[in-house]
C-alpha cells in the first residue's frame, strides 16, 4: 500500500470545471447518480462534490438525487443479510416509519446523503424511493410523490421529464439510472405487494414490479444509438444526457429485449 494518496487531487473547483467542460449548463435541472469513491482523492469528500455540482449549476439550477431508503421494507425479502423468520413480526411492528427529515438514505452513496441533509434540501414523500432536491425547482419536483408509485407517473421522475432535466452519471453506471425505471411503468409489467411501515402501522401496497436487470446492456445500446456527452471528473467517467431521451429509448428497448409477463407477484409471507 502506498505511503501517500494517489492523484489526481480533486477539489470543489475541479468538479465544477470538469462538469462545465462536460456540458453542464448554469440554470439547468440535473438528476445526478454518483459514486464518490470512483472520483479519486477528493479534498473535502462529498461536501466538496456537492459544492462543485451547485457551482456548475449556478443559483438558478436545481440538483436532484435519489434518496432511497429501501431498508424500510419487509424483512421477509431481506437477503443482505437475511434475518431469522422469528424476528419478522417484531421488526414489522417496531420499524420506524418514514420521515423525510430524519430517515437516512441507503444504497445510493454518500453524495445523495449529503444532499439530503444540505440546508434547504427538500425530499419527496415516498417511504422507499424518495428523491432529494436543491434549487428553485426543488419543491415542484418533489411534491406529490404518490405512496403507491415508486418511480412512475406520480413520482419526481415524471416531473423531471416534463421539465427537461438531464441525467448525470458521475462515476456511476447505467445500472444506477433511475430514469429507466419510469419506462417500466409505460410497458406491460408485473405487479407486486410491497410491505413497509406506514402512518398507521405495517402496510402492504400493490406496486409495479421494478428491476434494474439488464440496465447495463440497455445503457450500452442507448449510448451507441443516442447522443450522450462523455468526459471525466477526476478519474471517474461521467455521462450527461436528456432524461426524456433515456426514458423513450428504454420503453422501446425493454419491450423487445426484456419483456415481462403481466402477472401478480407475491412476496414471501
Characterize the structure shown.
- The structure is a single chain.
- With 269 residues, this protein is of the alpha/beta class.
- It has helices at 12-22, 36-39, 45-57, 88-94, 110-116, 138-142, 156-162, 179-184, 215-225, 243-257; strands spanning 9-10, 29-34, 41-42, 62-66, 122-123, 131-134, 166-170, 191-198, 201-208, 229-233, 236-242, 264-265.
- The N and C termini lie far apart (47 Å).
- The mean pLDDT is 93.
- β10 and β11 form a beta hairpin.
- A seven-stranded mixed sheet has the order 5-6-4-2-7-11-10, with helices on both faces. It has a three-stranded mixed sheet with strand order 9-8-12, with no helix packed on it.
- Helix content is 32%, strand content 21%.
- It has ten helices and twelve strands.
- α1 packs across α3 (45-57) and α3 packs across α5.
Provide a brief overview of the structure:
The protein has 269 residues and is of the alpha/beta class. 32% of the residues lie in helices and 21% in strands.
Keywords:
269 residues; alpha/beta; single chain; globular; 32% helix; 21% strand; 7-stranded mixed beta sheet; 3-stranded mixed beta sheet
Sheet bearing the most strands, described? Answer: 7 strands, mixed
* Termini gap: 47 Å
| Derived structural class | alpha/beta
Strand content: 15-25%
Mean pLDDT: 93
